[in-house]
Amino acid sequence: MKNDKTRQTGEPSGPALQGQTRQPPRVLVVDDEPTIRRLNAKMLLDAGYNVDAVEDGAVAWDALQVKKYDLLITDNNMPKVSGVELIEKVRAAGMSLPVIMATGALPNEGFSRQGRLRPAATLLKPYTLAEFLGTVATVLCGTVLTAMLLLCLPISL
Length: 157
Hints:
Low-confidence stretches: 6-17, 145-153
Structural class: alpha/beta
Shape: globular
Strand content: 15-25%
Number of domains: 1
Mean pLDDT: 82
Largest sheet: 6 strands, mixed
Distance between the termini: 52 Å
Number of helices: 4
Helix content: 25-40%
Order of helices and strands: EEHEHEHEEH
Number of strands: 6
Radius of gyration: 16 Å
CATH class: Alpha Beta
CATH superfamily: Response regulator
Strand order of the largest sheet: 1-3-2-4-5-6
CATH architecture: 3-Layer(aba) Sandwich
């Protein structure tokens, strides 16, 4: 079982809020192709994210039981547990974790059959560095904005 664990250390870029340190988002990268897995992890590390990278959906599921992640980026066609099966497990467990599916081919079914399995975004391989990092930022920003809006909206009874 190969598990590429990579972490970003140090202070995040940008101003801190009066003595508070903001932790960079934690991202789990799942891809059975070692070169793609390492490249995606490196791009995220260089952009300031905390990253763990694993080789398939089964190992990813184990990692999700141990750590809290802000984003899951997964391939679909993998041995043991596919990306769609991993999303099914995440949703069945009640995790609200946003998911980006970065894959060479979209699943034939799954998403259209069950809307709850639809990832926050889909990237078709090959994608550029700008597409990859832009999608990650958009998904994370959307998640943060949604949470902030929910906290700021008045509750009507």
